[in-house]
Amino acid sequence: MRRSMKQIAMILSLVAMVNFLWILLTIRNHLQAIDTTILLYHNAHDRQDNHNVRLPGPENLNVQRERNERWSSDALERVLLDSSDRLADSVNDMNTSVISWNVVQDPQQISAASKSYFKDIERFPQVKTLTVRYGFTRLSEILPIRTYYNYSSNNCSKLMYPGSTKLVLEAQSHAECTSDFARTLEPVGLRPLIGSLQNGLPPETNVFPDVILSFVHVIQGGYIDNEGIVTSRDVTIRSQGCGMDTVGGKYNPEWTLIDKIFVISERWGEAFFHSLVENLPRLLPWLKYLQENPTIKIHIKSMYHNIIQKVFNISYSRVTAGNIRANLIILPAGIPCGKPAVYPTQLLWYQIHKQLPAIPMEERMNLVLIKRLPRKNRYFAFHKDIHRLLVIEAEKHNMTVVVFDDQHMPSFEDTMLMFNQAFMVVSPHGAGLTNMLFSQPGTILIEGLCRAALNLCFGAMSQVLGFRYYGHFRDDKDCFEYTAEELAVSIRFYLRRRRAL
């Protein structure tokens, strides 16, 4: 009996030891799998034989908590320096001493909105194209915005293109619209950026495994019309932007001749939103080159010299517009009308915020209310009631309400500081929201959307710049009709959770 007990004890000990070894082996295999996954995730873009690597498409992007992750600008600055050097080499290699001004009567029209754009443009030897590429899985190394969010609305199902079944922002990106405020509190990784990475590129350009962040054409001789359409001998190039239905001006040898010019103009380029969101960002991937070559003119309609001079450190005397001839034309990638492109837009934000303090969410004490003139129905008819509501709610949290009035606008410097210190911005749809370029990621934007002309361009900008966006929409009201009571729910929700953001 005693011997049997000993045998049973030995058997149980062996079973326990086998189980323990099995557990250790399982843990080791899991760790190896994790290591392999991480290695593939970071190096897929460098592998030539990567057809077996599962790239992180929209369906398997994990939530990334990067709020407290330290980011260094070193990698981004290296990309910018490399872009500048490559552009300088291309410009120096372009022989402008043998320019032919024999423009054909009907040059071929090439549109950057065409799927075959890159292939089409290769047929013209006077045009050289450079691209800026980076591995998709490594974008967090160079993108200065660290957190991104899904967007919210009281009426997600109505935020659609006319005659479409696709939500506007979901068609432009892979962000999700939710009526559950709580789902906008935490970041969701790179998912909201996927569609926006295509903005400015020919349709269906693949972003896996490498993303084309930007591109630029160096063109040997040509002319530019007032809307930035470039013609060189036998080709007319239309960059993406507003007014892509134009075909370019007719050549006139009497137009002013400039040696070298950088073109970022478009239709409506003199307007505040279009200038800052669609025109000026095109310059940013190549800013170092332009700063180092002060004789190059810049073709743009913009009158916003404060940003060009104070933020870009470029003399406004270099700006020109109208119909121009040039020995050498530098034409960067365009930006679609109302659809911010990720890389150039974040570069603009990065350049602006070099001059602004980084303020943590819990230390931002401003509630900014934008007041607009009563025009185009883009204003709050009940502005006083909404202001009163914000003051009452702000006092509960020791915060301050600041009104941005487009009739009595503050200075450029004061505007930058006002929006940089904003915890929340409340506004009817309108160009004043462009000032959120001065805001910090995580800032809450509550926008009163307009029924007559639904436009989610500021929702798209929020996706790219990491804001928490709430679009208030009713198909039986226009944006000027929203009351304080209707906006109160979203305002109170975010204020009550201020400490948790």
Automatic annotation (TrEMBL):
Which domain of life does the protein's organism represent?
A: Eukaryota
Q: Which Pfam families match?
A: Glyco_transf_61
Q: Which InterPro entries match?
A: Glyco_transf_61_cat, Glycosyltransferase_61
Gene Ontology MF, one = protein O-acetylglucosaminyltransferase activity
Q: Which keywords label this protein?
A: Glycoprotein, Glycosyltransferase, Membrane, Transferase, Transmembrane, Transmembrane helix
One Gene Ontology CC term in the entry: endoplasmic reticulum
Asked if the Swiss-Prot or TrEMBL record annotates the protein with the keyword Cytoplasm, the reply is no
Transmembrane regions? 7-25
Where is it predominantly found? Answer: membrane
What's this protein's name?
Answer: Glycosyltransferase 61 catalytic domain-containing protein
Which species is this UniProt entry from? Capitella teleta (Polychaete worm)
